[in-house]
Amino acid sequence: MKKSNEPFWWALFAGGGMLSAFFLPVLILLTGLAMPLGWVEPPSYEAALSLLKHPLTRLFLLLLISLSMFHWAHRFRFTLYDGLQLKHLHTLIAVLCYGTAIAVSVVTVWVLWRV
Amino acid sequence: MADNPHYTKYHPKWYRHKVPIFWWVHKWTSIKFITREITSVFVAFYAVVLLFHVSAVAQGPEAYDSFLSCMKSPVSIGAHLLALLFASFHSYTWFSLAPKGLVVKMRGERVSGPVIAGAHYVAWLIVSIVVAWIVLSA
Description:
The complex is a heterodimer. Chain A has a single domain (8-114), classed as Fumarate reductase/succinate dehydrogenase, transmembrane subunit (3 helical TM bundles of succinate and fumarate reductases). In chain A, 79% of the residues lie in helices and 0% in strands. Chain A has 4 helices and no strands. In chain A, helix 1 (6-34) packs across helix 3 (55-83). The termini of chain A are far apart. By secondary structure, chain B is mostly helical. Chain B has helices spanning 28-59, 61-70, 74-101, 113-136, and strands at residues 105-106, 109-110. Chain B is flat. The interface between A and B is large, with 54 and 50 residues.
């Protein structure tokens, strides 16, 4: 029997699901609504840069962005299979979904590396 | 004789049950299931926004200012409001399923599902407060 690589993708999906469940709502509320609408003051450029320069912030952002993308890739893949009945395109869909997640992760590493 | 080896005269037609694309709209549980699956699109949306945010800070003060003014556009506000609703639904469903994958024993007794889920909700609240405190005091 061919060894399945499904547990590997599932682990990335679960890790991303956990991180995004804990961190995304508060970040979306702050950066997407509270700051643009003037409820709270966004950090000054210097403050944002010094926060970003901290290695722990960068490690956290890499894990959050990358694993969130893998979470999306895995879930969206099965949404297309089951929701839209596209099981016959499974290779193409898997390559597009995981490929996007890998590409975004690579860009994230590159951006964070140059800070 | 064997000009076309793939040709079989009496090949049976496989029975395939046809499922309509919108099979899930007729039942509340399947609408909830599809909604939960769709939350992943908003998770990815915000992950990319966050990447642009980081990239703007990395590029310099002008890029950071123009990113912040982009976030003030009505389209962005609407998208983030929708993203907040879906992301919160993701958190809610994710933590409510946590007891299914987690067996915790205390003094030899299995901790009940609602207690495990409740602990996750409390942790979610604490994490949110800590993150807000770090971002706002930066």
